[in-house]
Automatic annotation (TrEMBL):
Active site: D148 (charge relay system), H220 (charge relay system), S543 (charge relay system)
Keyword Signal appears in the UniProt entry: yes
Entry annotated with the keyword Kinase: no
Localization (cell): Secreted
PANTHER family: PROPROTEIN CONVERTASE SUBTILISIN/KEXIN
Alphabetized UniProt keyword annotations: Glycoprotein, Hydrolase, Protease, Secreted, Serine protease, Signal
GO cellular component: extracellular region
Entry similarity comment: Belongs to the peptidase S8 family.
Residue intervals of the Inhibitor I9 domain: 26-115
Signal peptide annotation: 1-21
Protein name as catalogued: Subtilisin-like protease SBT1.9
Length: 765
């Protein structure tokens, strides 16, 4: 599989690779707009002329003849917000000609893209009577642009009941007409919808787009956008599970969909076009649940477009990826975006009632209210491995609940397959495998129980020949403990694109999130071949976590319109909670029994109400990020592909970005390391005068010093700086160690400004 691929963070069972004629290929070309000759009326005219010039110089006569009649066939997109340049179908000769034209900066091939909730608002303690929901008026006034697979506009989540009549005057977008989509599909909630597929078509000119509009055919975009800002929907559920009033994290925010993902393919040029348009349209937040793996910042379309967004005050919230649990698998480790990991929710479904009166809460998502009542409970060692449908079918299991053993040699996934194929009346699986609980569907009437509950159930079945049991479906239990845990699949840092900034930033609910879905696609399965639709679906992935964080960012933007993207990110990072609901460190489902490190969950689970009033923020300007790029050794043209402007300088290169977290990477060959960080914090507390004292938890093997240990603020918006020094002595048994720095407000102040600290070997990326 190609290494340079954009990953949409929900499992997608296909990846279509398209090729044009061998003589041509689609390229993304960066140009220096400041060098555009005055003879051209617009950048588009300049780009088209550049392409015509390259064709004239082309030595491939057949291609020259073909294109000379209509030069616009080569041009796919022009960009003016997210980047300066264009996408075009070019031969190698034409590309070389363009490289020699005035204003050329860089070019690289178009890349393929891969795809990466009712209770979660309560789980995040959002309440309309206080805190962030109240302060932001539920996100009213904020516009969130969602870059995804489109939207199902008829979903109840996108109705505009209760929305104010006045759409913000900054909005410049539209509801683009297309197949099965017209202007009436937009309203005061869904204020815009556009679609971009020229990249897919350029990669395969003979293709037919099955749904040539902003209408969703995957369900991914409908799910993510309703999670960000869906309206109130009573009685929403997934076949009776998680039933309640569904709503987005920012239920009064406006939504705009930019469809860039297609059944026919997913390409970087389309993603760039969507982000370019979102910036131009005037969105406040961009939510993008996808990312590019193994690509440098100056060739990463999301990094490039998000820099332009950041310059205009637009925060880009992105997903970390679903490639866990290995370290160094994270994408979107972009210093100027918010990178979001996925965690579990304090919720489970279904229970098991034994004939002796014992009830065990378990987990099931069998998509029907099946009658599995007082069935015979059987534990038979001949079939208890549940790995053979043939063996199971030889027994009369129609009105029997089979207990399946918890075996190392047989996965629960295989047991699910065998019991489904054998059409057993019911099954009990014994497992705490997070893969099963977080992502697997349940096509057979069954329930999963924790191994600690198994002995008494097996004992009852073995001792009582008349043992019976009932499985209760369509039940929902909240407040389960411990929760959250970092999801097993969530990608981990350090960031391959730049490991010197700690990523991910935060964790948000991502496993089994209920949100709107398209009604004409399978949402669940019964048995081997019965597929069922649903208007709402439980999905898992960092794709689901990202829009939670995007929604919180929209609320913060509505409450604090003067905050920069860096300030919003800082508020979310420094107030995140590293503890679960048992007050113990959040666990890592990718490494059961271990605490989740900041490389897994960032600073911890987002806490929206605390983020409203963080006390101190770590701000950063566009020039600060440029200083980082300069210190990374990027060339002038590589930096220009990101910044699009020569107004920035490399006069003060620095790898020490003013970030709300710390990561020190050591060389394994060195026994010791000393790393210094300088940070500046801005007092955003309402009281003005404030005193903060540093409290440090040292990573194992390290001594962390802070100077000064006390920060005194005389007024609001005042800045104070400090230096952190990490002295590390290598421990052969240690790989990654972590601690924290907390600035604690004195004098009765409630603020605790927490920054995670990570010490890790540089070779893990």
């Amino acid at each position: 599989m190609e290494h340079h691929k954009l990953i949409l963070l929900m499992t997608v069972p296909w990846l279509l690779l398209f090729t044009t004629a061998q003589s041509s290929k689609t390229y993304i070309v960066h140009m220096d707009k400041s060098l555009m000759p005055q003879v051209y009326a617009s950048h588009s005219d300049w780009y088209e002329s550049t392409i015509r010039y390259s064709i004239k110089l082309s030595t491939i006569s057949d291609h020259l003849t073909t294109n000379s009649n209509n030069n616009n066939n080569n041009l796919v997109y022009t960009y003016d917000e997210a980047m300066h340049g264009f996408t075009a179908v070019l031969s190698l000769d034409e590309l070389e000609a363009i490289k020699n034209t005035h204003g050329f900066v860089a070019a690289y091939p178009d890349r393929f893209v891969t795809v990466d909730t009712t209770h979660t608002f309560e789980y995040l303690s959002l309440d309309p009577s206080y805190g962030l929901w109240k302060a932001s008026n539920l996100g009213d006034g904020a516009i969130v642009g969602v870059i995804d697979s489109g939207v199902w506009p008829e979903s109840e989540s996108f109705k505009d009941d209760g929305m104010t009549k006045n759409i913000p005057s900054k909005w410049r977008g539209t509801c683009e007409l297309g197949q099965d989509f017209n202007a009436s599909n937009c309203n005061l909630k869904l204020i815009g919808a556009r679609y971009f597929n020229k990249g897919v078509i350029a990669a395969n000119p003979n293709i037919t787009i099955s749904m040539n509009s902003a209408r969703d055919t995957m369900g991914h975009g409908t799910h993510t956008s309703s999670t960000v800002g869906g309206n109130y929907v009573g009685g929403a559920s997934f076949f009776g599970y998680a039933e309640g009033v569904a709503r987005g994290i920012a239920p009064r925010a406006r939504l705009a969909m930019y469809k860039v993902l297609w059944d026919e393919g997913r390409l970087a040029s389309d993603v760039l076009a969507g982000m370019d348009q979102a910036i131009s349209d005037g969105v406040d937040i961009i939510s993008i649940s996808m990312g590019f793996d193994n690509v440098t910042l100056y060739e990463d379309p999301i990094a490039i477009a998000s820099f332009a967004a950041m310059e205009k005050g637009v925060l880009v919230s992105s997903s970390a990826g679903n490639a866990g649990p290995d370290l160094g698998t994270l994408h979107n480790g972009i210093p100027w975006v918010l990178t979001v990991a996925a965690g579990t929710i304090d919720r489970t479904f279904g229970s098991l009632e034994l004939g002796n009166g014992i009830t065990v809460i378990g987990w099931t998502l069998f998509p029907a209210n099946a009658v599995v009542y007082d069935f015979n409970l059987v534990y038979n060692r001949t079939i208890s491995s549940c790995d053979s449908a043939q063996k199971l079918s030889q027994m009369d299991t129609e009105f029997v609940i089979v207990i399946c053993d918890n075996l190392k040699s047989v996965s629960v996934i295989d047991q699910l397959r065998a019991t489904t194929k054998a059409s057993v009346g019911g099954a009990i699986f014994i497992s705490e495998d997070p893969v099963l609980i977080e992502v697997v569907s349940v096509p057979v009437p069954s329930i999963v129980i924790n191994p600690k509950d198994a002995p008494r159930i097996i004992k009852y079945a073995k001792r009582d020949p008349m043992a019976t049991a009932s499985i209760k479906f369509q039940q929902t239990f909240v407040g389960t403990k411990p929760a959250p845990a970092a999801a097993f699949y969530t990608s981990r840092g350090p960031s391959p694109s730049y490991p010197g900034v700690l990523k991910p930033d935060v964790m948000a609910p991502g496993s089994r999130v209920l949100a709107a879905f398209i009604p004409n696609a399978p949402a669940a399965r019964i048995g081997e071949n019965v597929y069922l639709p649903s208007a709402y679906k439980l999905l898992s992935g960092t794709s689901m976590a990202c829009p939670h964080a995007s929604g919180v960012a929209a609320l913060l933007k509505a409450a604090h319109p003067e905050w920069s993207p860096a300030a919003i990110r800082s508020a979310m990072v420094t107030t995140a909670n590293p503890l679960d609901n048992t007050k113990h460190p959040i666990g890592d489902n990718g490494n059961l029994g271990q605490d989740a490190s900041p490389l897994v969950m960032g600073a911890g689970q987002i806490d929206p109400n605390k983020a409203l009033d963080p006390g101190l923020v770590y701000d950063a300007s566009p020039q600060d990020y440029v200083n980082l790029l300069c210190a990374m050794g990027y060339t002038h043209k590589q930096i220009l592909t990101i910044t699009r402007s020569k107004s920035y300088t490399c006069a003060n290169p620095s790898l020490d970005l003013n970030y709300p977290s710390f990561i020190a990477l050591y060389n394994k060959k060195s026994r010791t390391m000393v790393k210094k960080f300088r940070r500046t914090v801005t007092n955003v507390g309402d009281h003005g005068e404030a005193t903060y004292k540093a409290v440090v938890t040292h990573p194992r093997g390290s001594v962390v010093t802070v100077s000064p240990m006390t920060l005194l603020f005389g007024h609001k918006n005042e800045n104070q700086s400090y230096v952190v020094t990490i002295n590390y002595t290598r421990n052969k048994k240690e790989n990654v160690s972590f601690g924290e720095l907390i600035w604690v407000e004195e004098g009765g102040g409630a603020h605790r400004v927490r920054s995670p600290i990570v010490v890790a070997p540089s070779g893990i990326v």
